[in-house]
Recover the amino acids of this structure.
């Protein structure tokens, strides 16, 4: 096995008659920042779901740091070092922003079964730092349910980061954000990759964001991996143009 | 005790009539839950109220117009109509406010109804058990005597099951109700007045139960407190069959009714324990019930 | 078919506003301490029952209010505890004539592991389900245990229950037993208070709010649910252990769904979203029961109407009425229309 962080082989998943993922091979090396693109229903979220244990693949294997993680329960995959933000912000609505992040940090630190610790003290400082980094400082005491869409997405990013992942999967991380918010958030994502060496895989429909931030792009179509290359290669590929850019203005 | 064929047959007969009672009660419960997601704990209490009402009507008819078992028919009909109206009223005034509440709150509200209706019954009818005596000759059946009324009961049960099934599968209203079991959004998107439909379904469920109360009055004495035992068994039936499935409820009623009446032979005190063993097993093996569809929750 | 709407706003609100629970608790503690000053033994008797049932309801709310699941057979663990204590006490009584202090405490202590073990075995199956299925399976197990106790005459005396339990001399005194109960319940509540504010307590809230996200944060959802189920079972067992010596008898009804329903009533009447809610619910329910039944035969009607009123007009329980009233007062005083931020 090479030094790949993530290696996927022959990943296939059917939903009823729909081929959501078909025989996908893919690898990610440590420190990469890559994007998966494809039209609606191409199978992007499904691939994330399969990697993170939300669904079990019909066939195919997934290795993470050389360890076969295929079919492991979701929480074990998180603990192995893959964390995820969902396409539709997935947070703890009736907890405050601070509680969302702090509790997630406590889970990572192994405090789940700590019955008598003081939850308000443990990891509070780090939670504050993480919240600052995700631009939510002034909203830390708000209930998560009351946040705007963009803030919810950023909160989920903070939650995902609190699991101290080695690989971060972001499903449309800037969906529902204003243009300014989106570029701020993508800058944060880039910094996470560049400054902290975090390996990141994200999906996104907005091509300028994809080509502006990903160093590698995988194009999916009807569950199949069509082309995997540099943004330039994908942009110039005639197949890609036909499938993708035919439908959507660049 | 010897288990000869005859006694087994008789036991089967009693199991089947018990099954029909459970079915008539549980089908309304299942329908109401399937359509509105409301667990109506007061269902068996409304059934009981219908029983008292039928009893009084029956007494009134026999007293004013002469003794005849046939008075049970109009009495049952009137009580059923009254309970249909009461059911609609309860839905309209109370249940309606509970649709977006949590299960325990629904439980609490319908439990309050159990308490209130139970006490109202106590005020009006007192605490004695009531039953209707029908002058029916026991009938010889495979060398032994059975109450031919059991056949009436079983017939009514099967007829109601068939009628409900036909209503749900072959009428426009029924199809809409079934659609609502699967997707509330779709039905309201079709422009059907969901509120009126909920009221009607609740009334219908209660009416089916009310009718069975009348039918059973000649063989099951009615008294305060039986609603409490029955409701939990009804839940067992509904869960075993699968929420919202009439066929499932029917099959589960037969399983529970028959198993119960045979367990009584073997282990009289523990017969109900066996029902709950079945319930536990089904919930572990197929939480959505024998005929329900798997939900992703 | 859709699942019940996830309307978590009202009841299962995070036991937030811990300050309200704390204030109510600090008010109740001396009140309970002073109950014996009231004339006659009856108030003390009622207060004992309030405490025991309050603890039982609190244990239910560990699963409902914090974890968001309905343990609709929760009386099973209460009853298991009560029977464990009663059976051991009865055995010691038969062996030695009377239960000594050591035997008495032993009989009570045994209830906790017995209930916890029961909760572990049953919970193993229950935590695989959620929502209405969780509720139904716990109801089914509860009824199963009820009928086993009911029909296993040689061991449990069935319907007759176990009569004539006599605690050692000191605890036969109503006042002494009351203070003993007060101490036990207060200690249990302190432990639960710590748990509610511990990382584990917050893990439970995460499960309640969003079990899927919780799994993707790295929580083993089922294991956590099981641990909490066992904890709740243990507290219910502790409450049960007080019941036998208090009533001098136990009966199968302690395991039935009515008794489980009590825990649900009390939690919701008081306010399932508040730590101390179930105790408040117990004060209201048990207190009313004790006094209303003296004046009327129509207790069910009375409590039925009260429950109806609470469900319709005080959806978050009585404490949420108080909470909202206080909040309005505070807002009026501060004079700003700004949204109040919740305390962490
Ligand atoms: N749980 C499921 N059950 C049935 N079908 C599913 C399920 N999840 C996804 N699908 C189907 O699989 C296909 C791939 O879906 P997926 O969500 O992976 O697409 P996507 O690329 O993420 O699309 P989008 O850009 O809209 O998010 C779609 O046709 C979708 O309808
Ligand atoms: Mg997607």
């Amino acid at each position: 096995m090479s030094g790949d962080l993530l290696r996927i082989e022959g990943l296939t998943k059917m939903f009823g008659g729909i081929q959501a993922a078909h025989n996908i091979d893919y690898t990610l090396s440590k420190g990469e920042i890559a994007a998966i693109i494809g039209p609606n229903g191409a199978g992007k979220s499904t691939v994330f779901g399969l990697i993170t244990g939300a669904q079990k693949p019909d066939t195919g294997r997934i290795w993470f740091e050389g360890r076969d993680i295929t079919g492991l329960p979701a929480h074990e995959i998180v603990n192995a070092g893959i964390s995820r933000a969902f396409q539709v912000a997935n947070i703890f609505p009736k907890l405050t922003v601070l509680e969302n992040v702090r509790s997630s940090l406590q889970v990572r630190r192994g405090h789940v079964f700590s019955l008598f610790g003081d939850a308000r003290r443990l990891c509070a400082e780090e939670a504050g730092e993480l919240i600052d980094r995700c631009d939510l400082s002034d909203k830390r005491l708000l209930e998560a349910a009351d946040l705007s869409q963009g803030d919810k997405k950023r909160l989920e990013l903070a939650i995902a980061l609190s699991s101290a992942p080695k690989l971060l999967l972001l499903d449309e991380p800037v969906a529902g954000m204003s243009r300014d918010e989106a570029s701020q958030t993508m800058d944060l994502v880039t910094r996470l990759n560049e400054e902290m060496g975090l390996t990141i895989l994200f999906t996104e429909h907005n091509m300028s964001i994809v080509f502006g931030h990903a160093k590698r792009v995988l194009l999916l179509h009807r569950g199949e991996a069509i082309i995997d290359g540099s943004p330039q290669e994908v942009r110039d590929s005639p197949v890609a143009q036909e499938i993708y850019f035919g439908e959507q203005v660049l | 005790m010897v288990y000869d064929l005859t006694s087994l047959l008789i036991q089967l007969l009693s199991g089947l009539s018990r099954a029909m009672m459970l079915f008539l009660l549980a089908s309304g419960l299942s329908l109401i839950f399937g359509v509105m997601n409301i667990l109506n704990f007061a269902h068996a209490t409304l059934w009981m109220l219908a029983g008292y009402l039928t009893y009084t009507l029956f007494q009134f008819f026999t007293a004013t117009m002469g003794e005849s078992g046939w008075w049970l028919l109009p009495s049952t009909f009137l009580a059923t109509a009254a309970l249909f109206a009461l059911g609609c009223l309860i839905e309209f005034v109370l249940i309606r406010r509970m649709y977006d509440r949590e299960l325990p709150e629904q439980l609490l509200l319908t439990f309050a109804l159990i308490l209130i209706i139970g006490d109202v019954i106590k005020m009006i009818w007192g605490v004695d058990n009531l039953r209707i005596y029908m002058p029916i000759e026991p009938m010889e059946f495979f060398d032994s005597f059975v109450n031919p009324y059991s056949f009436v009961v079983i017939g009514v049960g099967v007829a109601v099951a068939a009628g409900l099934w036909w209503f749900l599968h072959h009428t426009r209203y029924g199809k809409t109700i079934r659609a609502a079991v699967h997707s509330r959004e779709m039905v309201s998107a079709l422009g059907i007045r969901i509120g009126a439909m909920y009221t009607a379904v609740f009334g219908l469920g209660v009416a089916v139960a009310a009718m069975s109360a009348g039918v059973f009055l000649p063989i099951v004495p009615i008294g305060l407190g039986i609603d409490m035992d029955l409701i939990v068994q009804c839940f067992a039936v509904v869960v075993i069959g699968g929420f919202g499935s009439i066929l499932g409820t029917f099959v589960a009623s037969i399983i529970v009714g028959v198993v119960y009446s045979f367990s009584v032979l073997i282990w009289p005190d523990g017969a109900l324990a066996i029902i709950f063993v079945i319930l536990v097993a089904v919930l572990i093996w197929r939480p959505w019930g024998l005929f329900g569809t798997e939900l992703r929750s | 078919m859709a699942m019940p709407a996830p309307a978590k706003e009202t009841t299962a609100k995070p036991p937030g506003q811990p300050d309200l629970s704390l204030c109510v608790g600090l008010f109740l503690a001396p009140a309970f301490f002073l109950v014996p000053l009231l004339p006659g033994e009856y108030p003390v008797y009622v207060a004992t029952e309030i405490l025991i049932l309050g603890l039982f309801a609190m244990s239910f709310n560990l699963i409902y209010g914090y974890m968001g699941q309905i343990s609709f057979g929760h009386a099973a663990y209460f009853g298991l505890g009560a029977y464990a204590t009663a059976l051991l006490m009865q055995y010691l009584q038969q062996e030695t004539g009377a239960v000594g202090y050591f035997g008495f405490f032993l009989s009570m202590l045994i209830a906790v592991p017995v209930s916890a073990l029961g909760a572990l075995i049953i919970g193993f199956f229950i935590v695989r389900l959620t929502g209405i299925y969780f509720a139904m399976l716990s109801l089914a197990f509860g009824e199963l245990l009820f009928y086993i106790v009911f029909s296993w005459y040689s061991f449990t005396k069935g319907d007759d229950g176990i009569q004539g339990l006599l605690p050692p001399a000191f605890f036969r005194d109503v006042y002494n037993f009351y203070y003993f109960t007060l101490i036990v319940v207060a200690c249990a509540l302190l432990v639960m208070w710590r748990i509610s504010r511990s990382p584990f307590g917050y893990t439970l809230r995460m499960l309640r709010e969003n079990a899927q996200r919780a799994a993707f944060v790295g929580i083993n959802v089922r294991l956590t649910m099981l641990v909490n189920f066992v904890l709740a079972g243990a507290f219910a067992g502790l409450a049960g252990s007080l019941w036998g010596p208090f009533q001098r008898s136990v009966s199968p009804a302690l395991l039935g769904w009515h008794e489980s329903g009590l825990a649900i009533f009390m939690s919701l009447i008081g306010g399932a979203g508040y730590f101390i809610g179930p105790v408040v619910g117990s004060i209201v329910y048990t207190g009313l029961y004790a006094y209303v039944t003296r004046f009327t035969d129509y207790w069910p009607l009375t409590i039925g109407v009260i429950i109806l009123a609470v469900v319709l007009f005080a959806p978050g329980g009585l404490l949420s009425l108080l909470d909202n009233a206080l909040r309005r007062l505070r807002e009026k005083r501060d004079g700003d229309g700004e949204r109040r931020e919740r305390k962490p």
In short: The interface with chain A takes residues 8-9, 12-14, 194-195, 197-203, 205-206, 209-210, 212-221, 224, 227, 339, 341-344 of chain C (CB under 8 Å). Chain C has one domain: 20-299.
